[in-house]
Specification:
There is one protein chain. The protein is an alpha/beta fold and about 400 residues long. The strands form four sheets. A five-stranded parallel β-sheet has the order 11-10-9-12-13, with helices on both faces. A four-stranded parallel β-sheet has the order 6-5-7-8, with helices on both faces. Strands 1-4 form a two-stranded antiparallel sheet. It is globular, with a radius of gyration of 22 Å.
């Protein structure tokens, strides 16, 4: 049986559609034949009257009617001129899955952050929210996790949804019997409305999304990417620093294996006049693909071996753990990298008063415990911001704007 397409509600307007990305980084969706006036909304089917599209506008939609393309382009220019972005309540989210940071453009980021602020109010003032009542999320984790898994589960429950979870699917699921990821996804999607996947292989989330009929959220795929972490990191910077344009960010630690810093670099490239410093031991330097991407986007970046100098110039010092699990049997290289760059009182002394220290956590010894008492230590606040971002993502993926 052919897979139902996970499509935008704008597809109901015409039987003659084509995929049109208005941003080079947005990935083209898979489109299959759908009955006229029927919208496949993941695991649910709803019937829509075509007339509803008259009031719908998607300035960055991937789906445009061929006959109305020039009209849509003219409307888009008007929206851009007037500063209007139509992420209207009740409309479908522009993305079907959250797989990597390149999917997001600046307008979507800003809109997601607005929803996250609404989630902050819900978490504080509406503990009995029922926004996602009747929806079921599966967390399928093939690698250990504390913050990511629990924050997604907390986010779902705080919005009235339910959770199916497995903490170590690599060992305590049919994967231990040799079941393929694809077969696992096909099975689990029958039990849930959305799957949050963490996997030890880069590209696993994209493999899952290719065959799934429910949204897939990449919660980290080996040394690949961690898009929800990048979203919460950028949200944290905006909340703590107050701006995203013109900032200087130092990325420190395991940059070769760190999926968090890779995803963050992609998102920072969306903003103006950003400068990025890479500070890492030689064995875990940032890979060339990220450097090439930043260069192609006109982002100023620099490699440095002097953390003190970088910390004195940056608005954000983003520290990461040297990941022992990524070194395999080369523990000699791990020991060589570990402990070279540590955020301690000496680093705090040179940092600007408004600057912050961030970390995706868990930490080992790369940030000393006495840093925690400094108001510039933002990493635990960063983890809490992650709850709001994930609440926002779940709401958007399952019920839309």
């Amino acid at each position: 049986m052919s897979r139902w397409c996970k499509v935008s509600s704008a597809m109901a307007a015409s039987s003659s559609l084509f995929s049109c990305s208005t941003h080079m980084d947005v990935l083209a969706p898979t489109i299959s034949k759908c009955p006229k006036d029927v919208v496949r909304c993941h695991s649910k089917i709803s019937y829509k009257e075509p007339s509803y599209l008259k009031s719908t506008c998607y300035p960055i939609s991937r789906f445009l009617c061929m006959n109305n393309l020039s009209k849509c382009d003219k409307m888009k220019k008007t929206w851009q001129r007037d500063g209007i972005h139509c992420f209207s309540e009740g409309h479908k989210f522009q993305l079907d899955d959250v797989l990597d940071a390149q999917q997001f453009d600046r307008d979507i980021l800003n809109a997601i952050f607005e929803v996250a602020r609404d989630m902050e109010n819900i978490e504080r003032n509406s503990p009995e929210s029922q926004i996602l009542k009747g929806y079921l999320m599966a967390t399928l984790f093939y690698e250990p996790s504390t913050r990511t898994r629990l924050s997604f589960e907390s986010a779902m429950r705080r919005l009235g949804g339910e959770v199916l979870t497995t903490e170590n699917a690599r060992e305590f699921s049919s994967a231990a019997k040799g079941e393929t990821l694809e077969d696992t996804i096909r099975t689990v999607e029958g039990y849930s409305d959305l799957i949050v996947l963490r996997h030890f292989e880069s590209g696993a989330a994209r493999r899952a999304a290719a065959i799934a009929s429910v949204p897939i959220v990449n919660a980290g795929d080996g040394p690949g990417q961690h898009p929800s972490q990048a979203l919460l990191d950028v949200y944290t910077i905006e909340r703590e620093i107050g701006k995203l344009d013109g900032i200087k960010v130092g990325l420190v630690g395991d940059l070769a294996n760190g999926r968090t810093v890779r995803s963050l670099a992609y998102l920072l490239a969306k903003y103006k006049d950003v400068k990025i410093y890479f500070v890492s031991p030689d064995v875990v330097k940032m890979k060339d693909d990220i450097k090439d991407y930043l260069t192609s986007k006109g982002v100023d970046w620099k490699e440095s071996s002097d953390l003190v100098e970088v910390a004195s110039e940056c608005d954000v010092v983003y520290q990461t753990r040297i990941q022992k699990e990524r070194f395999g049997e080369r523990l000699d290289l791990y020991e060589k990298a570990r402990g070279k760059y540590i955020v301690n009182q000496n680093i705090l002394k040179v940092m600007q008063r408004h600057a912050v220290v961030m970390h995706p956590l868990p930490r080992l010894d790369e940030i000393t415990l006495d840093v925690d008492a400094d108001p510039r230590a933002a990493y635990f606040r960063q983890a809490k911001y992650g709850l709001y971002i994930r609440m926002a993502l779940l709401k958007l993926l399952l019920v839309g704007w």
